[in-house]
Amino acid sequence: MSAWVWILLGAVYFLLPLFATFLFSIKNKLTGKCCSLSPYGVIVHDPEFWHTFSLSLVLSLETIALALVLFVPTIYWVHLKLPRLRPVISFLALTPFVVPPIILVVGLLKFYKDTLHAPFWFLDNPHWFLVAAYVILAFPFVFFSLDAGFRAIDVHTLTEASLNLGASWWTTITRVILPNIRTAALSAAFLTLATVMGEFTIASLSAFHTFPTYIEYINETQAYPAAALTLLSFTITWAAMLSILLVGRKRGGPVRLTGAR
After folding, report:
1. Angle at which helices 101-113 and 126-151 pack, to 10 degrees?
2. CA angle centred on 60, ends 56 and 66, rounded to 5°
3. What is the pLDDT of residue 252?
4. Nearest CA among 39, 30, 57 for reference residue 219
5. Are the CB atoms for 69 and 192 separated by under 8 Å?
6. CA dist., res. 193 & res. 172, Å (int)
7. How high is the pLDDT of residue 30?
8. How far apart are CA 52 and CA 210, in angstroms?
9. What beta strand segments (E) does 134-219 contain?
């Protein structure tokens, strides 16, 4: 019985602010009284809403893909062959928590722009510059999620069994290791998606117009549409996370290879 009480309190704690935001969002902007869906119409019919949201969503997917491609083989090799490096990487993974995003973006911009041949093709493209910065920003979430996934399985036994059965390293990683860390990879993807979709400082200081900068602009200029935008962004972001979950679980369960003890 007490468990249901705590669940109910938790639901009220999270849902009550959303409900209050919804009540505020359906007020008429002229009279200030309920009820009108015009604030939602203002947002939905604004081309900048769809442009910035699609850009941030694509950036988040690119960040997830690049982070997993970089960190899955690295963490796998550390657990398999270089366990002494794990504390070092764990320490490095805490750096984005210590260094604020404003220092990170100022440092990156100064580093690239002060070079003799500044790579403006890199600086002027959000799919290059922002994704590179977001991978650094998401490093702690990706590392600690994947590290927990690798620690939960017997990496050495799975690898030895796969190689002894004639599988290549590529097959071992993609068809044996990855299915067993799917939950950890999905957790890393969720956290990265939430980080990128809500990141404002780096995008703003590097002069890119992304979804968080659009939200900030609406919050400064329009009250009721800002509340409507908050609910829409919350709903669409959760829908995107759910789609990642469904895609990740589309295939079968984890692969388990066990040998004689």
Report:
1. 130
2. 140
3. 47
4. 39
5. no
6. 27
7. 62
8. 5
9. none
Give me the architecture of the 62-248 domain, per CATH. Answer: Orthogonal Bundle (1.10)
Distance separating alpha carbons of residues 110 and 108, to the nearest angstrom = 5
Separation CA 147–CA 34 (nearest Å):
50
Per the document, the length of the chain is 261
Closest by CA to 90, choosing from 53, 143, 52, 43, is: 143
How do the domains of the chain map onto residue ranges? 62-248
Could you tell me if residue 207 is left (phi over 0), alpha (psi between -120 and 50 degrees) or otherwise beta? left
Rounded to whole angstroms, the Cα distance separating 117 from 70 reads 27
What was the pLDDT predicted at 121? 82
Cα 51 to Cα 57: distance, rounded to the nearest angstrom: 10
* CB proximity list for 133: less than 8 A, separation 6 or greater: 104, 105, 108, 202, 206
Does this model's pTM top 0.85?
no
Q: Would you state the pLDDT for residue 15? A: 86
Q: Which of 195, 176, 154, 148 is nearest to 252 (CA)?
A: 176
Asked if 249 and 190 touch (Cβ cutoff 8 Å), the reply is no
State which residues of the chain have pLDDT below 70: 1, 29-33, 115-116, 244, 247-261
How far is residue 186 from each of residues 130, 152, 154, measured CA to CA in Å? 22, 15, 19
Distance CA 104, CA 137 (A): 9
